[in-house]
């Protein structure tokens, strides 16, 4: 979730992003931002569990962009004014657990895979500033 003045952005488990007007307690917009249907099936406590990989795990909003991260290993950048998709970031090999928009033109992503990426954003172009892989030593 991300509060922005009298609005609230919510990422949902079905891969959708919602925008709510808090003054009116009304949903203003909803859009699928990560594809549905991809599932991970795993054994947990001797039971089979299926997880939708399309769930929105992280999101951030600034004056120009909306950024979403998902269990589908992608981060996506959307134009805030139209909610149109601008960029898909595919550097992660596991879920994108956190992301942050900085200085109105920079995005940092962090994945469960230990990778951290920083990107310079414009409406037309995405430049990779760096990608760092965190290695755990025992």
In short:
This protein is mainly β.
List low-confidence stretches: 37-52
Number of helices: 0
Biggest sheet layout: 4 strands, antiparallel
Give the amount of beta strand, in percent: over 45%
Q: So what's the CATH class?
A: Mainly Beta
Q: Strand order of the main beta sheet, please?
A: 1-2-3-4
CATH architecture: 7 Propeller
Distance between the termini: 35 Å
Query: Secondary-structure element order, as H and E?
Result: EEEEEEEEEEEEEE
Which term fits the overall shape? globular
Any idea what the radius of gyration is? 16 Å
| Count of discrete domains | 1
Q: Helicity, in percent?
A: under 10%
Mean pLDDT: 81
DSSP strand count: 14
CATH topology: Methylamine Dehydrogenase, Chain H
Describe the protein.
With 138 residues, this protein is mostly beta strands. It has a single domain, classed as 7 Propeller (Methylamine Dehydrogenase, Chain H), CATH 2.130.10.10. Helix content is 0%, strand content 61%. It has no helices and 14 strands. The strands form four sheets. Strands 1-2-3-4 form a four-stranded antiparallel β-sheet, with no helix packed on it. Strands 7-8-9-10 form a four-stranded antiparallel β-sheet, with no helix packed on it. The chain is globular and about 45 Å long. It starts with a strand and ends in a 5-residue tail after the last strand. The model is unreliable at 37-52 (pLDDT under 50).
Give the helices and strands, then pairings:
Elements: E1 2-4, E2 7-11, E3 16-21, E4 26-32, E5 39-44, E6 47-52, E7 56-61, E8 65-70, E9 75-79, E10 84-89, E11 96-102, E12 106-111, E13 115-121, E14 126-133
Antiparallel strand pairs: 1-2, 2-3, 3-4, 5-6, 7-8, 8-9, 9-10, 11-12, 12-13, 13-14
